[in-house]
Amino acid sequence: MKLNKLQKNDVFGKKVLLRADLDVPLTEQKLIKDDSRLRAVLPTINFLLENNASIILIGHLGRPDPNLNLKSKNLNLSLLPVAEWFNEELGIKSQELREEEVGEFEGWKLNEKFCVLENLRFYKEEEDPSTSSGLEFTKKLANLGEVYVNDAFAVSHRAHASLVGVPKYLPHFAGLRLLKEIEVLSKVLEDPLRPLVVIIGGAKIETKLPLVEKMHKIADYILVGGEIAEQDKILLKVQNEKVYGRKPVLLVADLTENGKDITEKSAENFNQIINLAKTIVWNGPMGLIEEGFDNGTKSIAEKIAQTNAYSVIGGGDTGGYLKKLGLEEKISFISTGGGAMLDFLSGEKLPGIESLIA
């Protein structure tokens, strides 16, 4: 995969349109609950600022209704809290952030070197760049910068204007975090330390099944929990039987009576396998942790943290839960992507990455 990597000469003194993953969870008071995704883009931001670049940071938050009039947009999904976070984190500390026009877009100028555009998903053209209005939107966005950088791995499985359209009009490069994500996940696919244990949880079998299919070919153990374990136990086992030659061990968890967590016995069985692992990939919780049914997820998280295995964790729910437990430092790599990580490991091409290939 030949991606254009950031070099000093490419960005020095230029206006850089930086696509980042700004989709962070907020409290009812509009405070950021988990800033992991924002911190992930800081190395790229610092590199650009050190090379005298001016940054226009672009991204989205949540799923606003793009059909609303822009002036009466979903204010609960405004990127103002994100702009305020960068204002504080970068030590700019503008007294008051006022919404200004940046080209033909709304946004906030923190100083002459750094501004943040308002939520791109307030514009319906962001998610549908193939239309004539989408093409016009893309060109207006591209006109803001001289160089484009994608450091938003978590949304690079989306064919949106800011990911696949803008690179057609500007010199384009992969951000530092994006390159790290690709490096780590490619290592898992191509040359993992074995045994490789893959743990899959959550509820959406339609998004997880391609990963299960791919992992059948490279994993030594596949452990399945969460709602997909109960809903698709037979399907998963039939799929495993279809694998010829080298075949992984497949364990599908039993659920508690209320169906909201895996049983203690299943967690123990999973943990015995985890003890054997040299590489661990985990995506999706074992139960409904948002409702407090987290015994299985907690047990597995603590076991992984105790091992010496190389561990890769993906998905906002899982990563956020590890941070809540204070275990994030015990994990080798926490991917910013959930769906993007699944797609990448499933062997699918990610549009946002494909658009960067030289």
In short:
The chain has 358 residues and is α/β, with parallel strands linked by helices. The chain has helices spanning 8-11, 36-40, 42-50, 80-89, 132-142, 161-165, 176-190, 205-218, 227-231, 233-241, 264-274, 295-306, 316-325, 339-345, 351-354, and strands spanning 15-19, 54-58, 99-102, 105-111, 114-117, 147-150, 172-174, 196-200, 221-224, 249-252, 279-283, 310-314, 333-334. It has a seven-stranded mixed β-sheet with strand order 3-4-5-2-1-6-7.
What name is given to the CATH topology of the largest domain?
Answer: Rossmann fold
- Bulk shape: globular
Report Rg: 21 Å
Known CATH architecture of the largest domain:
3-Layer(aba) Sandwich
- Please indicate the count of domains: 2
Count of β-strands: 13
State the fourth-level CATH superfamily of the largest domain: Phosphoglycerate kinase, N-terminal domain
**Unreliable runs:** none
Q: Describe the strand arrangement of the main beta sheet, using strand numbers.
A: 3-4-5-2-1-6-7
Q: Which structural class do you get from the secondary structure elements?
A: alpha/beta
| Percentage of residues in helical conformation | 25-40%
Elements, N to C (H/E): HEHHEHEEEHEHEHEHEHHEHEHEHEHH
Give the biggest beta sheet. 7 strands, mixed
The end-to-end distance, rounded to whole angstroms, is 9 Å
What count of helical segments does DSSP give?
A: 15
**What is the C-level CATH assignment of the largest domain?**
Alpha Beta
Strand content: 15-25%
Mean pLDDT: 90
Task: Describe the protein.
- With 358 residues, the protein is of the alpha/beta class.
- The protein folds into 2 domains: 8-179, Rossmann fold, CATH 3.40.50.1260; 192-345, 3-Layer(aba) Sandwich (Rossmann fold), CATH 3.40.50.
- It has helices spanning 8-11, 36-40, 42-50, 80-89, 132-142, 161-165, 176-190, 205-218, 227-231, 233-241, 264-274, 295-306, 316-325, 339-345, 351-354, and strands spanning 15-19, 54-58, 99-102, 105-111, 114-117, 147-150, 172-174, 196-200, 221-224, 249-252, 279-283, 310-314, 333-334.
- The chain has a 7-stranded mixed sheet. A 6-stranded parallel sheet has the order 10-9-8-11-12-13, sandwiched between helices.
- The termini are close together.
- The mean pLDDT is 90.
